Every structure is written in structure tokens, then in C-alpha cells.
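Wed. Picked up where I left off yesterday with Probable GTP-binding protein EngB. The coffee machine is broken again, so keeping this brief.
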Amino acid sequence: MKVTSAEFVISSPGIKLCPEGQEYPEIGFAGRSNVGKSSLINKLVNRKNLARTSKTPGRTQLLNYFLINRAFYIVDFPGYGYAKVPQSVRAGWGKMIEGYLKNRKELSGVVLLLDIRHKPTAQDVQMFDWLQHYEIPTLLVATKADKLSRSQQIKQEKVIRTALGREQEKILLFSSLTGQGKDELLSLLEEIVQPGTEQAE
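Structure written out below (C-alpha cells, as returned):
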């Protein structure tokens, strides 16, 4: 898939204010704060500042919608796991995201981003478990792949799989710096949203 257009549409505080009346499929992008989610989205769509990081990590509790090729939405979830966020905010985040995962009929899949340098956190495991519980197609993407050697990458892939309890799960390595994994991820996204993509063409 080639990205020919990408535009910000809306920031929604929950499912009740998500776009209605359009049958575009949606792909969620989830990950903890500072995992490199905004950089990855910007790299995918060839834009420097389409997805912007919050000046206060973890406090922006909104679903950011980006319309891609006028065919499907990328839905950028707020980052989770930021240590300074109050418990009440973390609880609200969980309630909003689980409500979206459970009830949003347009949701076609989720890209779960994990920092390849670290073992998945408890919140990462919880997010993955939610996705499996609601039977949502999930792509695991390990960000910041350029930070490790190939031997280190192989070791960390095993750490991630073990933490998630999925020894055979495919993990796509991605680098927003070098572009590693970009074309493969775009192809996988196209497979998920193929009906909408074909209609748009």
C-alpha cells in the first residue's frame, strides 16, 4: 500500500464522540508512553508532524483519528503507563479503551507497539490480553529496532513472546529512524482494511 493522503480528523474523549455515518474501517495504534507511537505513524504516512506527542506524557486521554487514503482510519490511542499520571486518570484510560475495544464495530484491528529494548510491562500484557479476549486481530510491532544488534533483537523477541505467553507470535521489527519494517507494516495494514481500500480505489 502506498499512502497518498493522510489528514487529522478529530480527537475523541470516548466512543460516543467517535466519527459516525462513515463506514471506514479503523485500526487502533496502542502502546505505552514514549514507545515511539507518534514517530511510527508519522513515518508510515511520510509526514513529520501529523501525529504529535503531548507536552505532558500520559495526560492526553483522547482517541486521535487520522484518515488515510480516504479509505480507513488510524486511531491513535493515548499512551499508557506514564508513572506520574494519577490513578484516577489511569482508571479512566482503561475504561475508555476497553469500551472502545468492546463496542466499536468499525474497529478492524490493533497495532500493539512494544519497545524492543524492554520486557513488556504489566500494562502491555493487559492490553494484549484485552485484544485476545475481544478477538481483535492484532499486529505486534517492536519499535526502536535500530537501537539493538541483530543478535540482541533475536534475544528480545523471545523475551517479548514469553512475557505475552505467545511463543510463536509474529513480531514485526520497526525503526522510525531507518524505515525498517515500514513497507511490511503497510502491507499488513492493507490486508486488514482491504474491503475499504478496494472501495476507495
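Quick read: Residues 196-201 have pLDDT under 50 and may be disordered.
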